[in-house]
Write a structure and sequence with these properties.
With 237 residues, the chain is of the alpha/beta class. It has eight helices and eight strands, in the order E-H-H-E-H-E-H-H-E-E-H-H-E-E-H-E.
Length: 237
């Protein structure tokens, strides 16, 4: 009887991160409000961050996607604010990861230049060293970089797990700013790579039927939070 060859473990080659230093941010007003823990939006996101930490005691909840049913729901500012809120806990390392690569908005919201190598350049195989920025507030930012107008090629999509696995080794939480569920449903391809999703609904923006249809596209049990964005106070004073 022939002896089988011993199994040789195969180690995944993960990308390295580079950090850009001396980055000064000038957030736009809405982004500034969610990044300021003293402002009402920032305080509300601290409550959401507390809920996510509590849920994470019972199951793995380190990769959290933030998604809306369509463009304009405010997912980017919510994702930035959630990253800031989670990073407020001592010794917590948090990464904001921009994955809505057709509509990248993080650099504009933070008032910074696009990185030399963002998510798009990494996924397209143009570099193995994504560039992180570390604005005040304690979290790191890996933004999209170049705008991507076409769907990801298969080889590019296969590079995303490598990026996420590398982030897992460095960060306690990864907050993914995901593409909207409608109309192209790219976020559905991300479901296998995230532990849960925060669903963002902008008040008076999309019809209720559209919101419900988008929410049902996510697998049951993946929604760990709901943010009602731009809600007005209904009590007149």
């Amino acid at each position: 009887m022939s002896q089988e060859d011993p199994q040789i473990p195969i180690f995944e080659l993960l990308p390295a991160f580079e950090e850009e230093t001396n980055v000064r941010v000038k957030p736009r007003p809405v982004a500034q409000a969610v990044l300021d823990e003293r402002a009402a939006p920032g305080a509300s996101l601290r409550v959401l961050a507390t809920r996510i930490r509590a849920l994470g005691r019972d199951k793995r909840l380190r990769r959290v996607g933030v998604v809306g049913c369509g463009p304009g729901e405010g997912a980017t500012t919510v994702a930035l604010g959630l990253a800031r809120a989670l990073a407020a806990e001592p010794r917590q390392r948090v990464l904001y990861l921009e994955l809505d690569l057709k509509r990248p908005a993080a650099d504009r919201e933070l008032g910074v230049q696009a990185p030399a190598v963002g998510v798009t350049q990494f996924l397209e195989g143009k570099s193995e060293v994504p560039v992180l920025r570390h604005p005040s507030g304690g979290f790191w930012v890996l933004s999209g970089g170049a705008v991507r107008s076409r769907p990801l090629e298969p080889h590019a999509a296969h590079r995303l797990p490598r990026l996420l696995n590398a982030a897992d080794r460095v960060f306690d939480f990864v907050i993914g700013d995901c593409p909207p569920l409608l109309p192209d449903a790219e976020t559905l391809l991300l479901q296998d790579h995230f532990d849960g999703f925060v669903f963002v609904v902008r008040s008076r923006h999309a019809p209720l039927e559209t919101v419900g249809r988008a929410a049902r596209m996510l697998r049951q049990g993946l929604v760990v939070g709901l943010v009602l964005n731009a809600q007005r106070d209904l009590v007149r004073r």
